[in-house]
Design brief:
The chain has about 230 residues and is α+β, with helices and mostly antiparallel strands. The chain has eight helices and four strands, in the order ααααααβαββαβ. The longest helix has 24 residues.
């Protein structure tokens, strides 16, 4: 029994020594930095972005901060953790490279705080935040808006006016007709627009509003590919 207790004590004392106060402080800072990145993500996208990504950004910052505590200065432990994390498959939808950049942003801040380099994390947050704001679609250097393809299935006799004069101005900054075709063996009409959202609005709100309109049989919104 004594040997078992000694082995147990040895097992829990193998990791790098970090005081509880330092650990809590670093993880709290990681949480703050994660929230900051999530806010930047939301506020610099015209369509609101992926609904689940802000929560992922916050969790990533905290978890990476905790992982960095476990690694410490042990190179062997670092390689072991990299191998373990490499089998994890992130199922959050990342629609474009800008979303990926925000994921990396959150990871870098978590690593900075977890390793005790809070000054690096603060500097990265400030300069990275400015860069994200300047490069936001429709503002600064990147003046073009994110465009999406809106496909609307409606009854053959349905007029376009209720959509283009009633619903679209509430959510869209730009909309232009891209084509039309029959669907459901001629019983429905599929109309396509290329659209760009107003700041603060996203696809979820538009789809919900369109589905409430009389005669609408289906709504689909996806990123617009100009080369298609």
């Amino acid at each position: 029994m004594t040997n078992f207790v000694d082995q147990l004590k040895l097992a829990v004392q193998e990791g790098p020594e970090v005081s509880v106060t330092i650990l809590v402080t670093r993880l709290a800072l990681a949480f703050f930095f994660g929230i900051s990145v999530a806010w930047l993500y939301r506020s610099t996208r015209n369509d609101g972005g992926v609904d689940s990504l802000p929560a992922t950004l916050v969790l990533l910052a905290v978890l990476i901060g905790a992982v960095t505590q476990v690694i410490g200065e042990n190179v062997a432990r670092a390689f072991s953790l990299v191998g373990a994390l490499s089998i994890v498959r992130f199922r959050t939808v990342v629609r474009d490279t800008r979303d990926t950049a925000f994921v990396i942003f959150s990871v870098v801040l978590g690593m900075g705080v977890g390793s005790g380099h809070v000054d690096v994390a603060i500097t990265t947050l400030v300069i990275g935040g400015i860069a994200a704001w300047v490069m936001a679609p429709g503002r600064g250097i990147q003046s073009e808006l994110d465009e999406y393809e809106l496909r609307l299935k409606i009854g053959v006799g349905q007029e376009m006016e209720p959509f283009e004069r009633g619903v679209f101005p509430k959510y869209l900054k730009v909309w232009r007709s891209s084509g039309a075709s029959t669907a459901k063996q001629g019983s429905a009409l599929e109309v396509v627009w290329v659209v760009a959202f107003l700041p603060g609005h996203n696809a979820t709100g538009l789809v919900r509003e369109l589905n409430r309109q009389e005669g609408v049989q289906g709504v689909e919104i996806k990123p617009h590919d100009p080369s298609a």
